[in-house]
Design brief:
By secondary structure, the chain is of the alpha+beta class. The protein has five helices and six strands; from the N terminus they run αβαβαβαββαβ. Strand 2, helix 3 and strand 3 form a beta-alpha-beta unit.
Length: 150
């Protein structure tokens, strides 16, 4: 079982209801990934990786509302920053290496902020291979934070 930093635990406990407020029944699940899920989180050095899975594609308006609600200036992240990616359920289950995200948000006191609403807008120099790796880690070790009620 993952031993989570108490400040990160509180942050994630706040993040999930904020995401649910914006996404409503579209939210299928929320998962911690990266160093938190792999029990390798280091205070002051690590960021917090979160993946949200939605029933389908999101409108630009909904994506923007999610960014507005979860950015560091609205919901301060106790870590280096938040790296959030939102996928449709179809993309999350696809097993493909394609980015396929609905919205990507990097935000925090100690990281450069960036919002990307489509994979085509992501700089190619940053690489697209990360998404397949991230989804593989989520599949194998993702830490469930919330699941949709049935």
């Amino acid at each position: 079982m993952t031993t989570m930093d108490p400040a990160v635990r509180r942050y994630l406990a706040d993040l999930v209801p904020c995401a649910r407020d914006v996404l409503g029944p579209e939210l299928v699940g929320a998962y911690a990934a990266g160093s938190v899920a792999l029990d390798a989180y280091r205070p002051g050095r690590s960021d917090v990786d979160v993946a949200l899975v939605c029933r389908g594609t999101l409108s630009r308006r909904t994506s923007q509302a999610l960014v507005d609600r979860l950015r560091h200036e609205t919901l301060p992240c106790p870590a280096r920053g938040l790296e959030l990616v939102t996928y449709s359920r179809e993309v999350a289950a696809s097993g493909t290496p394609e980015p396929g995200f609905e919205v990507e948000l990097n935000t925090g006191a100690r990281m450069s902020s960036r919002v990307t609403f489509t994979p085509a807008d992501r700089p190619a120099a940053d690489g697209h291979f990360w998404y397949g790796l991230d989804r593989s880690i989520l599949h194998q070790r993702g830490l469930p934070l919330a699941a949709a009620s049935r």
